[in-house]
Amino acid sequence: MKNQDTETEQPQVKDPLALIRKHELAALLRVNPWTLDYWRKKGVMPAAIVLGPQTVAWRRCDIEKWLAQRQQNVEPAPTRTPLAGRVTRKKPRTVGHGTGS
Hints:
Elements: E1 19-21, H1 22-29, H2 33-42, E2 49-52, E3 55-59, H3 60-73
Antiparallel strand pairs: 1-3, 2-3
């Protein structure tokens, strides 16, 4: 017999109006909050919603879309090939500072 008081598992529905504030987003992205201000000014990230004179937030769904796009656009790092057969030459060192007289 099941206990009726237990919570039934329901899929979590994402709230399209859920907001994430600057410090929370900075912590999530592991960047300084000032970086978010810079990205906003450069138009790198979605537009923020101004909640007050010193409070901004983003719609969580906009940030999730932005992050998904950034992950798709990231190119893999180029592989470095060994410099086989390449000889580097150093400039000869000059001794003394005068004209040599």
